[in-house]
Amino acid sequence: MKNSSTATDAKPSLFHLPVIGGALLIGAIQGLRSASGHWENILIIGAIIALMSWDSRHRLSPNRERVPARARLLAWVALALAPCFLLIPGAAVMDLNANVILLLLAFAFCAFQRGARTALWSLPPLLLALVAMPLQEFIYLSFSYVLRLLSTILCCETIQLFNASVSYHHTTIYVGDASIAITDACSGISQLFALFLLSYLIVRRQHRQLRWALLHYSLLLPVVTLANALRLIITIVLFERIGAVIFADSFHVLFGLLLVVVTVVLMYAAGKLFPEQESTPADIAACPESPESPHDAN
């Protein structure tokens, strides 16, 4: 009888999928209960979690009869931290005590069963499911003002270079005698979660090495800010030409699509700043392979 351990180890690990699937279900229910008009963000975060979980299957530790005690150290740390959240007031952690405890328990379970590598690669989707999903409204509002303020500053400072009579105070732009308030609809926040997903798709297609992927993905918020500032500049210039008709809903939708297109193009172009070098054996072992190229998980 032939030894089939090599063939078994070559298969991608799907051990973490049921764990993350359970966390996703809990987070989705909590997110839908707390959502007030932005339930579609739950679907987008869920899609990102599903993609991250599937992409990480080649990076996890293979199945083995016994996990070394050293590899289980993180599990013991997580189990020791979990009871501490029973003593912390709910408001201190945004009423997510139970979610954090579940997160630590799921992390500990992965570490006990497969070791630290599997636990660490399972942590990002677990965080998105048990923290980001329930707090998606908070995240939405937190990013909104920052994006509005930065976009307003970039827009007005750029227009003032051409000696235009434009000024601003916080998130209000003054054009002559008119004042224009930059609201959530003008901040790019409405498309932000969708851009998180689109940018993830771009990054996972352009990069095989983790360091380049992380650097590339970190450019998303600066790119969104620049794209939104461009949208505001076009809006202000057209306002001076054709008046308040530029604030009609049809123009809002058109400029929203422009923001998405510009951001996607800039993110794709930014990927060229991080050229893929010759992959090392460690990089190859950590990256998904095509079905035609068998993968040996370590």
What does it look like?
Helix 9 runs parallel beside helix 12. The N terminus and C terminus are likely disordered. The longest helix is centred in the middle third of the chain and has 25 residues. The two termini are 24 Å apart. Strands 1-2-3 form a 3-stranded antiparallel sheet, covered by helices on one side. It folds into 2 domains: 130 residues, no CATH class; 136 residues, no CATH class. Strand 1 and strand 2 form a beta hairpin. It has 13 helices and 3 strands. Helix content is 63%, strand content 4%. With 298 residues, the protein is mainly alpha-helical.
Write the layout of secondary structure elements.
Layout: H1 5-10, H2 16-34, H3 40-55, H4 73-81, H5 97-114, H6 116-132, H7 136-160, E1 166-169, E2 172-175, E3 178-181, H8 184-187, H9 192-206, H10 210-217, H11 220-242, H12 249-270, H13 281-286
Antiparallel strand pairs: 1-2, 2-3
Helix pairs in contact: 2-3, 2-5, 2-6, 3-6, 3-9, 4-5, 5-6, 7-11, 9-10, 9-12, 11-12
